[in-house]
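Query structure, 327 C-alpha cells:
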C-alpha cells in the first residue's frame, strides 16, 4: 500500500479524423483484413494529418477534458507529456502544450517510457502531488506514431496509430486514487523494440538506422506475456488486494492476442478488460487513457471501481498501478 494524497478528477481524449482501415493497408503492403484481425484484433487506426503533431493532439485532449468536466487548467503547476514522438527534440511537447493552453505558472516536462509512458507519468504525478511539491498536474499520453512507422514493413505498420488522452490530478487527502504501484525495466532487451536516432548501435549491436520503428514482435510478445502477469501480482501484493477485488484491468493495447494471453496467465476475465486497439490500433503511451476515456463514454466505470493499469513496451519498460476510480 502506498501513501497517496492525489486524486484523478477529470479525463479527456482526442483522435485525428482520418482513418486507416485494414482494407486501406491492403493497398499499401501485402496484407488483408482477415490476416490483421486474426493476429492483432485491430480493424482500423487514426492517422494525424501532415501538419498535425503530438503537441496538437495533446492540446485537443486537454481541451476535451476541460469541456467535459468544466475544469480550468489555469492553476495547473506541472504538465507531464508521456510520448515517444515529440514534435522536436527541444522544446518539449509539454512546453508547447503549456503555451497553447496559456498556463503561466507551471513546470513542463516530457517523459519517454514508450508504451509504459502513461503509467509512469501517473506514478510520477502521484509522487509530486502527494509530497506537496505540486497541487495540480496534467498527465498526457499522446503519440503520432504514423510519422515514424515504416509503411513498407507489414509487421509493424499494421499496428500503429495516432491519438491522445489526458487526466487531471489534484491534491485530495480524503479520496486519493492511487493504491499501489510496481515499476520495472529490462533494458538488455531494448534491441527488440527501438526507433534509432543519434546512435546506430546498442550494446555493440548494429541497428537499422532508419528513424522508423523496428520491432522483433515474437520476442516482445514472449517478454510481455511473462513479465506483465508477474507485475500485476506485485501491484496487488503491494496493495494487499486480491485479484477478485479488481473491477477492471486496463493493459497497454498492443495486440489483442497478447492481452488474451496475459489475461489467461493472470486468470483475469477478458470481459472485464478495457482496451482501445480495435478502432485506434497501438497508440503507445495513449492506449491506456484512450481505453479509460472510451469506458467513461460507454458508462462502464462506476465511482469506486478498482482498476489495475499496466503499461509495457519499448525499453523494455513496464509499470503497473492499482487505482480507485473517483471521477
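Result returned for the query:
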Amino acid at each position: 500500500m502506498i501513501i497517496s494524497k492525489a486524486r484523478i478528477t477529470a479525463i479527456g481524449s482526442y483522435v485525428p479524423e482520418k482513418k486507416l482501415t485494414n482494407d486501406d493497408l491492403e493497398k499499401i503492403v501485402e496484407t488483408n483484413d482477415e490476416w490483421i484481425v486474426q493476429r492483432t484484433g485491430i480493424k482500423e487506426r487514426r492517422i494525424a494529418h501532415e501538419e498535425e503533431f503530438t503537441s496538437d493532439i495533446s492540446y485537443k485532449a486537454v481541451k476535451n477534458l476541460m469541456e467535459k468536466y468544466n475544469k480550468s487548467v489555469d492553476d495547473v503547476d506541472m504538465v507531464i507529456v508521456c510520448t515517444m514522438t515529440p514534435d522536436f527534440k527541444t522544446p518539449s511537447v509539454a512546453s508547447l502544450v503549456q503555451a497553447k493552453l496559456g498556463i503561466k505558472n507551471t513546470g513542463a516536462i516530457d517523459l519517454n517510457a514508450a508504451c509504459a509512458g502513461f503509467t509512469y507519468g501517473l506514478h510520477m504525478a502521484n509522487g509530486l502531488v502527494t509530497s506537496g511539491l505540486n497541487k495540480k498536474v496534467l498527465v498526457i499520453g499522446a503519440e503520432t506514431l504514423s510519422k515514424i512507422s515504416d509503411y513498407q514493413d507489414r509487421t509493424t505498420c499494421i499496428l500503429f496509430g495516432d491519438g491522445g488522452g489526458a487526466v487531471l490530478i489534484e491534491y485530495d487527502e480524503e479520496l486519493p486514487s492511487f493504491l499501489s504501484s510496481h515499476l520495472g525495466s529490462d533494458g538488455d532487451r531494448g534491441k527488440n523494440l527501438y526507433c534509432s536516432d543519434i546512435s546506430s548501435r546498442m550494446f555493440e549491436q548494429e541497428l537499422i538506422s532508419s528513424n522508423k520503428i523496428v520491432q522483433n514482435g515474437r520476442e516482445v510478445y514472449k517478454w510481455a506475456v511473462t513479465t506483465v502477469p508477474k507485475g500485476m501480482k506485485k501491484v496487488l501484493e503491494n496493495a494487499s488486494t486480491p485479484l477478485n477485488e479488481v473491477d477492471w484491468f486496463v493493459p497497454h493495447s498492443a495486440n489483442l492476442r497478447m492481452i488474451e494471453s496475459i489475461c489467461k496467465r493472470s486468470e483475469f476475465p477478458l470481459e472485464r478488460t478495457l482496451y482501445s486497439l480495435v478502432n485506434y490500433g497501438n497508440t503507445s503511451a495513449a492506449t491506456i487513457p484512450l481505453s479509460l476515456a472510451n469506458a467513461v463514454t460507454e458508462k462502464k466505470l462506476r465511482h469506486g471501481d478498482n482498476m489495475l493499469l499496466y503499461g509495457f513496451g519499448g525499453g523494455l519498460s513496464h509499470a503497473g498501478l492499482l487505482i480507485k476510480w473517483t471521477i
